[in-house]
Protein 1
Amino acid sequence: MIENAKLLEIYRRMLEIRFFEEKVFELYGQNLVPGTIHLYAGEEAVAVGVCANLRKDDYITSTHRGHGHCIAKGARLDKTMAEILGRKTGYCKGKGGSMHIADFSVGMLGATAVVGAGIPIATGAGLSAKMRGTDQVAACFFGDGASNQGTFHEGINLAAIWRLPVVFVCENNLYAMGTRQSRVMLTENVADRAAAYGIPSVVADGNDVLAVYEAAHLAVERARKSEGPTLIECKTYRLRGHSRFDPAAYRPKEEVETWLKKDPIARFQTKLFEIGALTEAEAKKIVDEVTKEVDEATRFAVESPFPEPEEALGDVYAKEGTIAK
Ligand SMILES: Cc1ncc(C[n+]2csc(CCOP(=O)(O)OP(=O)(O)O)c2C)c(N)n1
Ligand SMILES: [Mg+2]
């Protein structure tokens, strides 16, 4: 049973991600976002349901679709927005952009544009926690497409044989760019692959934040007790195309309509109303607060300066003496 305060925190986090993403979409249209963007809207229940089980000192690794992971792990909206807009006040001084945000202070080890590259990094973070004798856990987000990369097999196998505290979370949104999962995989579930590594797995409704929360709860507990990794597959769907320029014409209209009816935020809100954890007035208050928060983050980012050209080569190598032995 999750306490009401926690349920409302989960609801607020999901709204933060959705409103933040809508703002990024709007700013992109105003030519304020360099590069491209991959929006997480529609998949909020996965990041929030998993991260609601993690401590601040636990780790996550992310993907090219990483804004939601950052926010779910507790990164600040203003510095995240500034990074997406390429500003000096951003998490990576404006030099990483949308696909390369990291915030070590909350255990967000980084997003990456290289599909599947976060998987061995999470395995490494799990190994580090084990070697240091802490009970920290590393959660790793990746897509259905990434599960066909060699890094998936290598990263999970190593974590399995060494019983590392890692939770592998596949966000199966049915597509890798325009390629439908069934064209590149003969098995129905990515989770079925866990059997090959001798670890447990579960398929969760990725648009039901409580289902994700429960699945992640068991997996995180297992990892924390040094019982090894788990593979969680969350079936979900992105609201928009793969990236900003993709109209997603390859998705059948009926399929899109079916999934839109399963919007994770609307579903969770209905559930909260039903169980009496939220009233219409409280929901409106939270919506207003989150809207303001996103507006303030946007103002901070838009008013921030760009990095100077001569800063481009800084931070490429670590300074002598700053690497832990
Ligand atoms: C190693 C690598 N191969 C190909 C690409 C091009 N690419 C970018 S995103 C993407 C699809 C990823 O699909 P998935 O893992 O399902 O994540 P989703 O975009 O659906 O969240 C591809 C092929 C890349 N960035 N890196
Ligand atoms: Mg995908």
Protein 2
Amino acid sequence: MRTREAALSRLLMAFITSGLVFMLFPGTLLGVWNLLQISGRESVGLISPAWLQAHGHAQVFGWIGSFLLGIGFYSVPKLRDRATGIIRAAWLCWALWTIGVAMRWAATVYLWRWRALVPIAGALEMIAFLIFFSIVSQHRPRDSGKSRMEAWVWVVMSATVGFLLSLVANVIESIRTSVQGASPAFPHSFDQRYLALLGWGLLVPFVWGFSAKWMRVFLGLRPLRPRILIAGVLVNLTGVALAVAGKFSVATWIFVAAAGLSVIAIRMFEPSEQEAKTRGIHKSFPFFVRLAYVWLLVAASLGVAAARWDTSGGIWGASRHALTVGFIATMVLSVGQRILPAFAGMRLLWSPKLMFFGLSLLTVGCTLRVSCEVLAYQDYAKWAWSVLPASALVELTALTAFAINILGTFLLQRSHAVKEPMIVNIPQALSLPQPRFTEKTSTRRLTL
Ligand code: HEM
């Protein structure tokens, strides 16, 4: 059992490490380069759309997708029961996913044999996801002794379907573009609708699901309001369907309503009833998690403004980055540094101070970026163009600090998961002040 747990931790670390590599180089460095070019030319329209999309794909699928797959595999108890064959399949999933995302990025940026490689890359990503899906879909949560599934499970299922649909849309459009297009970039009208699916159909519900599952423990929040959460997800799905149909002016209002419902359901801004669990990480953790939800509301509101007033791509871009950097990246930097050290063999986070440094810089960078993107692109204030490159470098430093902290944890921190048979209760393990093993903790089953 101990070797299986170690094998699962290794698998998780492989997904997280490749996700960090995608985030840093193909994702963020290319994003910074694109922003420097846009600021130099004072227009987003003069930049290669293929490069913009290569950045977006690397961030959403390369970074966040790899994290989701890795954490998803780690959380399925079945892998602990009959590990060997399934773990092999999970490694195959990692290899196909990593090759697929890397191939897509390289073919889009270097244009080498892109007509063949972009659809092949999409197919590899799809096969990798189907391997993941076939493994996790056999799993029934152990607490389903209660006849009904918990609300957070429905939310994660909706996000998983969003993930699948995003990959299907990507494969179909990749084939169409490779046959008919002049470059690997998806046409603008498709891309806008596809981005709504990625943002609100995939990324946002995953974060809601994990928040519903974990934030009560981590932040000491009051009990979840499950019906309101499900209502929020249904409203959100309506918004996604309308956005995909091109009805942005209605869809954006619906996203505001869905975001509001999620906040009410999770009780994010209500006073906590218990102390937050911050041992081993920085004390500012609850602040940044709440701040992420402020960014969610900002992103949704900017979407409404974009549908009404955008003439340059600037308000859409600001809304998208309030969502991807403000909401998603702030959550990943907060929750990732909370859970990944424990999942990776019961380690302690390498540096809580570096965690604070990264999150603070991300907040500063994102605030500058979102505000100045509107002012500059829309031609409201010329000086804002000179702030945008600085905002990109601040965000790059923030994300680099996160990557260093996680890799420092994997490489430099001792694993405490060696002395006992490792069947761990994850929520319990996560709230342990120090990784220590007692008779009680070491013989519990993993029940995420
Ligand atoms: C240092 C941080 C980042 C920088 C400098 C950056 C820069 C950019 C730029 C310049 C664009 C072009 C559109 C626009 O002007 O707004 C863009 C688009 C995009 N970014 Fe980022 N970005 C960063 C982080 C992220 C993160 C963390 C994510 C996702 C988790 C992300 C996802 C996307 C997506 C999906 C697009 C749309 C691509 C498309 O047009 O299809 N970005 N980014």
